[in-house]
Amino acid sequence: MRFSGFRVLSEALKGHSGWKPLWRNPDPQPFYDYVIVGGGGHGLATAYYLAKTFRQSRIAVLEKGWLGSGNVGRNTTVIRSNYLLPGNGPFYEFSLKLWEGLEQELNFNSMVSQRGVIYLFHSDWQRDAYRRRANSMALAGADARLLSREDLKAMLPFLNYDNARFPIHGGFMQPRAGTARHDAVAWGYARGADMYGVDLIQNCEVTGFRIVDGKIRGVETSRGFIGASKVGVAVAGSSSRVMAMAGMRLPIESHVLQAFVTEGLKPIIPGVIMFGAGHFYISQSDKGGLVFCGEVDGYNSYAQRGNLPMVEDVCEGAMAVMPMIGRVRLLRQWGGVMDMSMDGSPIIDRTGIEGLYFNGGWCVGGFKATPASGHAFAHLLATDTPHETARAYRLDRFARGYLIDESGAGAQPNLQ
Amino acid sequence: MKAALVRSRIYSEVKMLIPHPVLGLRDATEFIYLGAARLIDRPDPSAPDAEAAFCDYVYLRDNPAGAHRELWFHEHGDHSWLVVTRDTITHEILGAELAQDVALARKRSVK
Predict the structure, then answer these.
(1) Are A361 and A251 a contacting pair, CB within 8 Å?
(2) What are the DSSP E strand ranges found in B21-92?
């Protein structure tokens, strides 16, 4: 079933009686060539690219709940590629390029909107750091520009420019960055994978790995044993719990990150605004709600909800930079569980167990990586070699001393 | 009565009151979090396997879902380190000890 303007019109005339479910709901087969654990954005994208780009077949995605019920349904939908370090820049730019073609690729409206992302700076050294970042981005094939205080005032007149502690000196903008509709990303990949014959198996929790002589044979699940030649785990948030079943300890702690949505307003915020000094960033959804977020709560948590002190902290950040939203009512608040890795960067690699592969450690930035993560993980699963943009994301980089410490916070996950 | 119990439990989880062994119940926001209490067991730098042991110590974590022993520093209080046992699924605080006592007890048990 292809979507098109003609299709929408003809369905409108037929009382919308012809729409079908977007994917099948099959029972698990006894054996697959590839089993992907985790039916979120990354797992579904992996299955899609494995089937479409790498032309593999007999693939299943196992999801313990319903598709997209984890972090892909619990984020703030920002997509960008403004990274500094060589291990990161080309990967996220590859991801942004995939975002730009995603709707055509999947024939699904993911509402990718390149409305621009602006980082505010408040001092000369911060401006210099952003200039360096912009130059680094140019080397990775991405684009960025610096905005003066006057440029910013013309674009965003409502900011508090004369905050005593953090006066706004200017901004650093990536015009091609923006937002996407997070649920539609999961649904689009799920539908795409299903159309290529991938079995999407919901309500199927992996309870163990069957490993014989250091080689994977399959997974034990709540719906019985499923045999597999290769198993790829993409369950960020629960990575430690799942990989512990294979006897592995990871350089990861789980922390909760809260996000907030206000009542719907007329368009007031043109793009995404990042106020890093106050731990606050904000955008406006297409429905009009202001979507904003701050830092992780900062202690290990699997609660999928946060605590009040961080709510207060985020709202203080909002009031410091954007006093005009002080009387907007908050509609919803939620928490997602983050795989906080020890250097703030992800891991896509083989493990010590033959046929078992790991994708995780996305920290607070997994959503923007969804297409490239899926593509790179599919590349690794299909060819046993890392994708050229993901070579730095090795599991042993901590032991070898090749950390990718994007925020320069050291080996302390709650500071990343 | 039951509703009151449920409310008080939710309150303790949301507020995360830490029962400081010396100072009594303190709000968790007075503290700074470091990580798993295993960080007390710093490896011996002169041991033959020190490199691998330090890699494990600095980077790898158990990260359990459920009861977790962890280090909290009383930054806005008496500057003591506590070993707090907390449920990572509910945020319920199950107990707190002075890290100093924990470390000394371990030292004695090693001897």
Answers:
(1) yes
(2) 24-27, 32-36, 67-73, 81-87
Q: How many Å apart are CA A408 and CA B10, to the nearest integer?
A: 36
For residue A251, which residues of chain B lie inside 8 Å, CB to CB? Answer: 59-61
pLDDT tens-digit series, residues B39-67: 999 999 999 999 999 999 999 999 999 99
Q: Residue B2: which residues within 8 A CB-CB, separation 6 or more?
A: none
Q: Which of B34, B61, B82, B92 to mutate to probe the A interface, most A CBs <10 Å?
A: B61
**A356-360/A347-350 β-pairing:** antiparallel
A170-174 sheet: strands from edge to edge: A145-148, A170-174, A117-121, A272-275, A280-284, A289-300, A252-264, A330-341
Determine contact: B71 vs chain A, CB below 8 A.
no
Q: Using the 8-state DSSP alphabet, how is residue A57 labeled? A: -
Judge: B59–A398 Cβ closer than 8 Å, yes or no. yes
**pLDDT band at B8; cut points 50, 70, 90:** very low
What is the number of alpha carbons within 13 Å of residue B13 lying toward its C-beta? Answer: 16
Q: Using CB atoms within 10 A of its CB, is residue A205 exposed (0-12), middle (13-18) or buried (19+)? A: middle
- Gap from A241 CA to chain B (nearest CA, Å): 7
Q: Is A302–B16 a contact, with Cβ atoms under 8 angstroms apart?
A: no
Residue with token string 């299709």: A7
DSSP state of B79: -
Asked if A250 and B60 come within 8 Å (Cβ–Cβ), the reply is: yes
Task: Give the whole-angstrom CA distance, residue A231 versus residue A377.
Answer: 11
Q: Are A216 and A231 in contact (CB under 8 A)?
A: yes
Question: Nearest C-alpha of chain A: how many angstroms from B79?
Answer: 19
Cα angle at A393 between A388 and A399, to 5 degrees? Answer: 135
In this prediction the ipTM stands at: 0.91
pLDDT tens for A377-408 read 999 999 999 999 999 999 999 999 999 999 88
